[in-house]
């Protein structure tokens, strides 16, 4: 454009390229109004700048405080006998501010020097000092607090030397700058305080979260150990507090462990309890329950106390179901894993698997759901049989090869031990050696001659032990036992005499014999003169009385009801009386015996089968 030409007005061009004038005044007004609504450009950056400053402060402030705390800790490391130490000086850091606290007033020079050295720490903003005063405290307080940020020592100590020692001890567990010393010097510490304070610190400092206090002579601790080893160490320590101090009710929370698994294993060494258990109280209940339900097994406890069991599960009921199942196996393991119960093992009982499975399902808490069971039947080894006679009962245990053998044994007991209660715990199983049931029968017959005793068979070994009433019987048993067993078996017998009762006079002797003849008469088979096989207890009782009678004469009279003039009946009665005298003599009865048979006349065809025995005693 030539300089002589007029400039083109500011505007816009139309679609044909022609310029269109604009309202310049209106546009300028709009721009002025918009500038009033819009902030200046520099103000737009203020929020971001504030955010950056906050982030920087968040990142820088902790680092500054940590550095100040570290440097203050170095200043606090003074000699225990220095004036600063004797004043109980401690440094409390709050951000960039430091407070110097002493228990006694510092000399002006020392106070100024300490404040100056503290103020020289980089980034320190404010330093203050104050004296709290040296006082007598009762009860004397001390506290340890352990957290993930360090250890805090609070309360009081009796002297600066102990204070320095406690700070040094705490620094063995965390960096020195993470030990916060809030201790003050005071009077009133009980004897043994130093040992108790060190003990409390040593017990709790290894943990990550714990708190403990000393109040006079009472120690109390709260802690949450992270693992079973730490929990056990704390519990053991708190059971052995220093002499002269007592433990309050501590709150030591077991660690939380998942999965929560508890086991009970039966093996040749007894019952092993392992895995996790919810509390120490339950540990006592479970071990007592095991000893009650499995009394023949020694209990080994390696359980660890822990949290983590589902609250809906009855742990004690689960343990009871486990012990009942293990009582029916020879070897096995019961396991509670979270909400699932399992049992594996071996049983010798032929019908044992179904019985075990049924009982487990009946006794297991419903919250556990269906159990996992794996039980196998195996031959019994060793194959054992036990019979014990004591206090009017016969107890049977161990194995037999069939239900028929079991019925035969029970029938024999009914014959040889009449009137005695039978406690039957026999189980049918495989694995018996040849001749086992014959030896068991012979041993039971011999046991009927014992006052009290026991038969024990294990594979091809027989042993009889117990008490007998007189030496002659003991000698006879010792001779007979070796002949009971087949070749290759071993047999042993161990006998001891029954303690003799006091002697009685002839009159009381007669009364006692009459009483035993009435309550427990010696029985005879029809037409037989020899006593029945089951008469042994009655003969033993009568012989024991005669042995107490001393020098007496005893006329044994047996009465039979028969037709008048029956010589055969008279001879049978006399024969029975003579058989009684022979049996009593064999059992150590040494009285002067005479015998008599008496026939009580009855109508023909009305003869009695048993008869009646009478003992007539006279002094010599």
From TrEMBL:
Keywords for this protein: Membrane, Transmembrane, Transmembrane helix
Residues passing through the membrane, by range: 40-60
Domain of life: Bacteria
Region annotated Disordered, chain positions: 1-38
Keyword Transmembrane helix: yes
Name under which the protein is recorded: Uncharacterized protein
């Amino acid at each position: 454009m030539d300089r002589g030409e007029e400039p083109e007005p500011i505007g816009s061009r139309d679609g044909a390229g022609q310029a269109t004038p604009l309202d310049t005044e209106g546009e300028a007004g709009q721009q002025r109004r918009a500038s009033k609504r819009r902030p200046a450009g520099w103000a737009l950056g203020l929020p971001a700048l504030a955010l950056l400053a906050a982030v920087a402060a968040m990142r820088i402030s902790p680092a500054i405080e940590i550095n100040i705390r570290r440097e203050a800790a170095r200043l606090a490391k003074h000699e225990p006998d220095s004036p600063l130490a004797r004043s109980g000086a401690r440094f409390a850091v709050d951000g960039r501010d430091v407070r110097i606290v002493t228990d006694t007033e510092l000399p002006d020079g020392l106070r100024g020097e300490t404040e100056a050295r503290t103020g020289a720490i980089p980034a320190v903003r404010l330093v203050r000092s104050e004296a709290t005063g040296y006082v007598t405290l009762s009860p004397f307080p001390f506290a340890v607090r352990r957290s993930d940020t360090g250890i805090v020592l609070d309360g009081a100590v009796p002297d600066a030397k102990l204070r320095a020692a406690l700070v040094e001890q705490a620094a063995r567990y965390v960096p020195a700058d993470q030990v916060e010393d809030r201790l003050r010097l005071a009077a009133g510490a009980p004897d043994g305080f130093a040992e108790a304070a060190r003990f409390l610190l040593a017990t709790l400092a290894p943990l990550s979260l714990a708190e403990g206090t000393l109040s006079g002579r009472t120690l109390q601790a709260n802690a949450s150990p992270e693992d079973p080893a730490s929990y056990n160490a704390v519990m053991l320590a708190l059971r052995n507090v220093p002499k002269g101090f007592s433990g309050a009710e501590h709150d030591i929370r077991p660690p939380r462990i998942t999965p929560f698994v508890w086991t009970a294993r039966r093996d040749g060494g007894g019952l092993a309890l392992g895995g996790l258990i919810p509390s120490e109280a339950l540990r006592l209940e479970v071990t007592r329950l095991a000893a009650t339900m499995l009394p023949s097994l020694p209990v080994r406890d390696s359980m660890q106390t822990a949290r983590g069991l589902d609250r809906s599960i009855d742990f004690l009921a689960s343990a009871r179901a486990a012990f009942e199942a293990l009582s029916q196996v020879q070897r096995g393991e019961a396991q509670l894993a979270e909400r699932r119960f399992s049992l594996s093992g071996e049983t010798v009982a032929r019908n044992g698997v179904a019985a075990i499975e049924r009982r487990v399902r009946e006794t297991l808490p419903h919250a556990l759901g269906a159990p996992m069971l794996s039980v196998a039947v195996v031959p019994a080894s060793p194959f054992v049989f036990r019979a014990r006679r004591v206090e009017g009962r016969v107890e049977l245990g161990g194995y037999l090869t069939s239900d028929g053998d079991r019925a035969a044994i029970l029938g024999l007991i009914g014959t040889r031990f009449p009137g005695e209660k039978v406690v039957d715990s026999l189980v049918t199983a495989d694995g018996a050696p040849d001749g086992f049931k014959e030896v068991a029968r012979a041993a039971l017959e011999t046991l009927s001659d014992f006052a009290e005793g026991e038969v024990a068979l294990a594979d091809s070994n027989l042993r009889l032990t117990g008490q007998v009433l007189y030496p002659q019987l003991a000698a006879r048993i010792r001779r007979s036992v070796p002949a009971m067993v087949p070749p290759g078996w071993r047999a042993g017998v161990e006998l001891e005499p029954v303690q003799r009762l006091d002697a009685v006079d002839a009159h009381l002797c007669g009364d006692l014999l009459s009483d035993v003849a009435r309550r427990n008469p010696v029985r005879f088979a029809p037409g037989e003169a020899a006593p029945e096989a089951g008469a042994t207890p009655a003969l033993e009782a009568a012989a024991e009385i005669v042995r107490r009678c001393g020098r007496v004469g005893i006329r044994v009279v047996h009465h039979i009801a028969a037709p008048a003039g029956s010589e055969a009946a008279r001879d049978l009665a006399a024969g029975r009386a003579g058989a009684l005298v022979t049996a009593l003599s064999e059992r150590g009865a040494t009285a002067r015996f005479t015998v008599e048979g008496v026939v009580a006349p009855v109508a023909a065809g009305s003869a009695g089968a048993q008869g009646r025995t009478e003992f007539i005693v006279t002094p010599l």
